[in-house]
Amino acid sequence: MAVSIRSFFFVVAFLFSGLQGFGQQEPPFSNYESNLSIFNPALTGAEYKNFVTLVGRNQWIDFPHHPVTYSAVVESKWTAIRSGIGLNFLYDQLGFEESNHVYLNYAYHHPLRKNRSISGGIAFGVYHNHIEIDSLVSESSFFGTIEDPLLQQDPSGSVWMGNAGLLYRTYHVTVGFSLSQIALSRATGFINPVVHCFFFAKYEIPLSYELKITPEFIYRTDQSSYLNEFGLSIKFRNFWMGGSLRNSSTWVGKVGVDIQKKFRIGYAYDYFTPDPSRFGPTHEVVLGFVVK
Q: Does some domain include residue 170?
């Protein structure tokens, strides 16, 4: 039985969207605090003078061709002009599809009274996507012979894209909203970028000078699917640990430390409850350099 490449892609997309509740156009992270400016450029330079992080995520390790994601963030706060400038890189592999995002971020931070501030940020960059058609066909023999005119086309493509976000901060509260993957040019190849909406909020509760508890909430949508996450983190001096529940199906635990208030090491473990024996856990590691 011959099946078109469009049909095969639809089956794969339906499978992953149903299992996770959110498409992989923008991958999820468990250590959001280490690369939030990828999703909301208003956070660029909002907290740290210098901020460099690397995040590696290995998702559903027992599932064939499981997602693998890497991100890199470099930011600097320019206090004299109340601004932050940064460079973000995101690599995501899902099965036979690979994507690369590179963005230049800028944010302006306007101080308000009583330790409050409001920030606006924009990002401009390029998104490149590549699909290994040969590997896809060889791995898809159970479909029969795949014959489709689309196979004669180059599946790789690129598009210029932008992100925009807002951020409001007080001594205890942080709230942000952003739009990402806004296409600024005509896409080539098989790329079909979809605008994502991203909202997050947290409330920091100081129990003592050294101990803080922070409830957190994250919501993302591409207008057809969604991701929501409720979490709680505890920070004692330079150590932190926390947990969250994502889409009522994934439990997340994380732990980390800032060494000498400069070097960051973090780890997160995701447990997918619907079918853990088939998919396996998700591991995520953070390495960073931070200066207040």
A: no
